[in-house]
UniProtKB/TrEMBL annotation:
Transmembrane segments: none annotated. Residues 2-71 form the Carbohydrate kinase PfkB domain. The keyword Transferase applies. SUPFAM superfamilies: Ribokinase-like (SSF53613). This is Kinase. It comes from Paracoccus liaowanqingii. The keyword Endoplasmic reticulum does not apply. GO terms for molecular function: kinase activity. Keywords: Kinase, Transferase. InterPro entries: PfkB_dom, Ribokinase-like.
């Protein structure tokens, strides 16, 4: 089992049943929009997993993509 938790500008976390909990703090950004932030986070996390990125890299990429999205930037 695994859980991903986001909370706006606060750290995001990933917890698994038999492993360490990972935490990643998003960069400070000026918020231009919030709609779609969670969708962007999950899409980036899934994309990282599909390319076999480690858990910590997947969480970091998801947090950074979501931060870019809410700041109004294009997400790669």
């Amino acid at each position: 089992a695994r859980v991903l938790v986001t909370d706006g500008p606060h750290p995001a976390a990933e917890a698994v049943a038999n492993g360490p909990t990972l935490i990643h703090r998003p960069p400070a950004v000026t918020v231009a929009r919030v709609t779609g932030a969670g969708d962007c986070f999950l899409a980036a996390h899934l994309a990282a997993e599909l390319t076999h990125q480690p858990r910590d890299a997947a969480l970091r990429q998801a947090v950074e993509a979501s931060a870019a999205h809410v700041s109004g930037k294009d997400v790669p």
